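Fresh eyes needed here. Kindly weigh in on this sequence plus structure tokens:
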Amino acid sequence: MSHENHDYPQILRSHGYRVTPQRLIVLDAVCEITGHATLADIHAKVIELDPRIDLSTIYRALDVWCAVGLLVESEIGDEGKVYKISGESNHHHLVCQSCGVVTTISGTALDAMVAEIHTRYDFQINVDHLTLQGKCSRCQMTGLT
């Protein structure tokens, strides 16, 4: 599991959170899902691991894991929120607001922008997984709104 190289109990404690079996199961579920994990994917996997864990517990656990930086959350088109282990593969998404097409781009594609913001504003951005919304070339050409 890709999250096992982190000392996640220490990470939780250092942020003032308790280590609970439910939180660990939710993290394991996200890790076992290949790619971006939707809430439905995570819920199904958690139920396999422990059917007593309800959806509200899953939501709270995901919020905690995102708050401590071990998971990243993105909004990708019609899929809604998706989750992945932080730092697994640095990439971003371009989401067409007209047709819904999602294009994955390299994490390095935004390096110049990140450096410019750091230089100009002395602000360090956490750029692990961004979603940028706009219009794809096809929709620009056809005038779709």
About this structure: The chain has a mean pLDDT of 84.
